[in-house]
Amino acid sequence: MLKYLKSSIGRSHVSPLSSRLSIFFLLLVSTQLRLSAQSTFAPLNEDYHNLIERYEIKSGILSNLHTTIKPVRRKELVKLTTELESDEKAKLSKTDRFNLAYLQNDSWEWLDDAKLQQSDSKKPLWQHLFRKKADCYSTQTKDIDFHVSPIFQFAFANDDQLKETPYINTRGIELRGTLNKKLGFYSMLTENQMLYPEYVREYGRQYKANPYEGFTKVPNADSSKYLTDFFSARGYITFQALKNMHIQFGHDKNFIGSGVRSMILSDFSAPYLHLKVTTNVGRFQYMNLFAQMINKQIPVAVDNTEQIPPKYLSLHHLSVNIGRNLNIGIFESIVFGKRQVGFDINYLNPVILLRFVEGHLGSVDNSIAGANFKLNFKRHFSLYGQFVLDEFNIKYFKQDGWWAKKYAAQIGGRYVDVLGIKNLDFQTEYNLVRPYMYSHNSTYSNYVNYNLPLAHPLGANFTELLLIGRYQPTGRLFLNFTAMLAQQGKDSNIVNWGGDILRNYNFARPSEYGNEIGQGRRVNTKFYQLGASYMIAHNLFADLKIQSRNTNLSGNTADAQNLIFSAGLRWNTSQRSFVF
After folding, report:
1. Cβ proximity of 334 and 347 under 8 Å
2. How many Å apart are CA 356 and CA 349, to the nearest integer?
3. What SS3 class is residue 393?
4. Alpha-carbon 155 to chain mean position
5. What angle do CA 359, 360, 363 make, to 5 degrees?
6. Alpha helix locations (H) across 269-372?
7. Confidence (pTM)
8. Domain for residue 435, yes or no?
C-alpha cells in the first residue's frame, strides 16, 4: 500500500478546481452560525438501491426524501424505515422487518433511544470491539460519533475462456462519523488485486481503463494476464451550511435515477473530486454538482511524472415530489476543459441556465439536458424513466437520421411482492442511445471520466433490455436472476459509426443523414446471471454466481461465449457488477 501512496504523492499537483473549491468550502464553514446534526451517506451500491426503491414503493414518497439522487443520507434512510414500520397498509412480511432492522442497524447512530438497543451485538469482543452489529469499533459522545469497519472480499471464478483463474482480493478499512454533531466525515481505503474474466478484459482493452476504478497498475507489465493491482480510496466531509442546505466535498461517486442504469450520471466510472450542494425547500430539492474529472485520453510521460490533464463537470438537477406517488426531475450539465484558468468560473453560477453560458462562451463545451420521473402506485408498482438530449436543432431534428439527432432514453418498471408472493420482486428496463450521443469534438468535453462512460457502460448506438428477478425467502438468503439482451453498432478502425464515445464525432463519420441505432458492425449480446447470497452476520456475505455471456458480431461465423462460475466471501462491501 505504501508504494501507491508514494507514487501518488510524487505525481500530485494542486489543481485549479481543487484550490477554488477548497476556498469556497472554507468560506462556507467560516460563515455558518448554527448547524443541525450531520449525516454521512449510505453505501452507493445495487443492494442498497433495491432496498430503498422497494420500501419507497411500499411506503409512498416522503415529501423531503428524493431517492432519485443517490446515495441518500443515512439520517433520511432511517426516517423512511422507522415510519414504514408503523404503516399497517404496507403489510410488511417478517423478511421485510428483518431488512428494515438491517438498514437501521447499519446507521444506528440515528435511531432513537427506544430502538437503539436492537443494534447491540449479543457477544462483544473484549468489551470494546463489535459492541454494535454494524461496526468493528464505535464510540459516541456529545463531541464525536465514530465508526470503524474492516473491508474484506475474496472471490474466485472459473472462466471457460481462460487458463488462469479470475479472482478478487480486497482488504481495507472504512471510517465515518461526525464531530460535534456539525461536521460529517467518511473515508474508505482498500488494497486490491484482480484478475478479470475475459470479456471484462476486452472491455478494459477497448477503453484502456477498468470498470469502476481509476488508476490501476499491471504488475511486471504483464498485460497478457490482465492482472491489476491498485490502491483505492474515497473520502469526503459534509456539513449543513443553512437549515435547508447540505454540502458534501471530497472524492466519491454519484448516481441519478431509479433504474439499474442511468442515462444522466452513473457510478460506473472512477471516483472524482466534487462539491455537491443540495438544497431542500418543502417538496423541492435542488442539487448543484461541481466536479473535476480526469482526461486520460491526453498522453503524459511514461514514468507518470506529469499530471494527467483535468476536465470538469457542472450539473444542476431540480427534483419535486408531487404527492406520495410522483417524482419529477429536470437537469442540465456541461462537460468542459482545456482552460488556462482551470475551472471556468462562469459555470459556478448555481442558478443560471448552463446552456446560455455555454453559448455565450462560444459553444465550445458539451451541454446536455433532460428529465426523469418516477411514479409509484398501489404500494406494489413503480414506473420510471429518463430522457436526455445532447443536440437540438429543430431545422435538422425532423430530418431522417441526422447525425446530431443525439438523445438517450430509458423506461422501466418494478413490481414488488409479485402475485402476492412476499419479497418476490420483478424489474424490467429498456434503454436506448442514439449514435454519437455523449461524444464531442474534444476529449475535454466528451461525457467520459478516466476513459470510462459517465452514463451507460455501453456508451452509445445501442438498445438494451434488462429483466431482473429478486427473491428473499428468508431474511438472510437473497436469490436473483438477471438477463440482458443488447444490440449495439460497433465502430471499425476506419469508420466512426457513433458507438465509441471516446472518438471525435467529426472524425471518419460516414454520413450526415440516414444514421440509425445499431449501424456499423452489429453485435448482439445475451447475458444471463443467476446468483445467491447468504448473510452470515451483519454485512458478511457468502456469494455464489453463474454467468453466461454470448456475443455475436456481424461478419464472424462463430459466437464468443463465456461461462463463468464464481464463489466468494465479502465483508462490508458489495459485489462488483459486470453486466455489460
Report:
1. yes
2. 12
3. coil
4. 22
5. 35
6. 354-360
7. 0.89
8. yes
Q: Which residues of 237-269 are buried (b: 16+ CB within 10 A; e: fewer)?
A: bbbbbeebbbbbbbbbbbbbbbbbbbbbbbbbb
Query: Cα–Cα distance between 297 and 333 in angstroms, integer?
Result: 21
Domain count, the chain: 1
Cell numbers standing for residue 370: 433532460
382 inside domain: yes
Nearest to 90, CA basis, from 367, 423, 414 = 423
551 close to 543: Cβ distance less than 8 angstroms? no
Q: Which CATH number belongs to the domain containing residue 252 in this structure? A: 2.40.160.130
pLDDT per residue, tens digit, the chain (580 aa), is: 434 334 433 344 445 555 555 555 445 544 443 445 678 899 998 999 999 999 999 998 988 899 999 999 999 999 999 999 988 888 999 999 999 999 999 999 999 888 888 888 888 888 889 999 999 999 999 889 999 999 999 999 988 878 888 899 999 999 999 998 889 999 999 999 988 888 888 888 888 888 888 777 655 445 555 667 888 899 999 998 888 899 999 999 999 999 999 999 999 999 999 999 999 999 999 999 999 999 988 877 656 666 788 999 999 999 999 999 999 999 999 998 877 677 767 777 776 666 655 555 555 778 899 999 999 999 999 999 999 998 766 766 677 888 888 999 999 999 999 999 999 999 999 999 999 999 998 888 899 999 999 999 999 999 999 999 999 999 999 999 999 999 999 988 889 999 999 999 888 888 888 899 999 999 999 999 999 999 999 999 999 999 999 998 876 766 778 899 999 999 999 988 889 9
Is there a domain that residue 106 lies in? yes
Q: Are 570 and 153 in contact (CB under 8 A)?
A: yes
Closest by CA position to 436, among listed 497, 361, 350, 365: 497
C-alpha torsion 494→496→499→505, nearest 10: 140
- Give CA 22 to chain center in angstroms: 24
Which residue segment(s) compose the domain that 31 sits in?
2-297+307-571
Cα distances (Å, whole numbers) of residue 273 to 223, 241, 310, 311, 445: 29, 19, 11, 11, 17
Burial zone of 327 (CB within 10 Å; 0-12 exposed, 13-18 middle, 19+ buried): buried
How far apart CA 42 and CA 561 sit, in angstroms, is 37
- In angstroms, the Cα distances linking 537 to 109, 149, 150, 389, 572 are 19, 13, 14, 45, 10
Q: Strand pairing partners for 561? A: 550
Closest CA to 50 of 425, 467, 552, 481: 425
| Measured CA distances, 373 to 66, 257, 326, 370, 409 (Å) | 11, 8, 7, 11, 12
Q: Which three cell numbers stand for residue 324?
A: 406520495
Q: Cell numbers 411514479 correspond to what residue?
A: 375
Tell me if 81 is assigned to some domain.
yes
- Give the start-end residues of each E strand in 6-114: 69-70
